[in-house]
Specification:
Helix content is 48%, strand content 16%. By secondary structure, it is α/β, with parallel strands linked by helices. It has two domains: 75 residues, CRISPR-associated endonuclease Cas1, N-terminal domain (Ribosomal Protein L15, Chain: K, domain 2); 244 residues, Four Helix Bundle (Hemerythrin (Met), subunit A) (Up-down Bundle), CATH 1.20.120. Helix 4 runs antiparallel to helix 5. The mean pLDDT is 87.
Length: 343
Amino acid sequence: MRRLLNTLYVTLPDSYLACDGENVLIKLQNEVKFRVPVHNLEGIVCFGFSGASPKLMKLCCDRGVAISFLTEFGKFMGRVTGKVSGNVLLRRTQYRWADDVEISTRLSRRFIAAKILNSRALLHRALRDHADVVDAAPLERTMGLMAGMIPRLEQANTGDVVRGIEGEAAGLYFANFNQMILAQKETFCLNDRNRRPPTDPVNALLSFLYTLLAHEVTAALESVGLDPQVGFLHRDRPGRSSLALDLMEELRPHFADRLALTLINRKQITGKGFVVKENEAVIMEDDTRKEVLTAWQKRKQEEITHPYLEEKIPLGLVPYAQALLLARHMRGDLEDYPPFFWK
C-alpha cells in the first residue's frame, strides 16, 4: 500500500517555488520561508499566481510529485506532471471500456450507488446523534426515498438513467443539508447547490473541498496508471478529468461534506471568513482557507478500516485504494469494482 505523504499547499500570493538539491523551497521576496525534502511530498497545490522555477518543475516531475495551479478562489488552472506511468495495456482497456455502453453503465451504477448510500449515511448520522435538534420526519422520509433508489439504479440500462437517478438523489440530499448544520445557522444556510460562482458560504466551502478532493483523486488515478480524463459516468470533455469526477462521487459525502459540517458546527470557521465580490460570488478569506486546509490535512491522517480491504489505512489513502481496486478490476483480477461504502 502506498505510504501517505503530504500535500504542500501554497497560499501566499507573492510566493515563488524553487529548489535546492532535493529540497523544495518557498520564497517570498527572495527570502526562503519554507523548506521541505521532495521525497516527503506527494503533491504541491498553489493558490493564486505563484511562480515556480523550471528546475523545481523538473525535480517534481522526476520524483513523481504533481504541481497543481489554482486561482486564489480554488478554480483549477493547470497541472504539471512527469511521464505517464502504468501499463499501456491498462489504459487501452480503460478506453475500450469507456466506449462500451454496458460496461460504462455498470460502473456508473457502482459509483452512484455508493454516493447515494454514503449521503444517506450522513443524514442517518445526524438523526441518530442529534434527534433532539433535527426534524426527524423529513429526514426519515428522505432516507427512505434514497434507499428505494438503489433497486431502481440496479435496473438502469443507460448512463442517462443513472445520471437522472443521481440528480434526483442529490436534490433530496441537499434539500435536507441544512438539517445537519447545527450552529451558526444565520450565516451558514444552503438554499440550493450552486457554483461558478458559489453565492453563499456553504457552497463556497463545499466547492473548495471538492477541488481539494479532485486533486487527490486525480493523483491517485495517475499513480496506478489510469487516465483521469476518460470516465464512464462523466463523458469526455476537453480539460475535464472525467474519471476523477466518477471516482469522486462515492467519496464526496465522507471526505468533503462531513468535513464542511464539522468546520461549521464546531465553529472552526465563521461567517466573517467569507466575503462577497462584486459579481455576488462568495469566497473565503486567506485565514479561513488556511484553517480549512489544516483541517483537511489532519482529516487525511485519521485511520479507518477499509470496508473491502478490511485493513486499517489513513483516510487520505482511500482514493489510492479505490483507484487500485478499479485498476485491478480492469486487469481482470477482480470480478467487479467494489466502491467505497462508509460504515
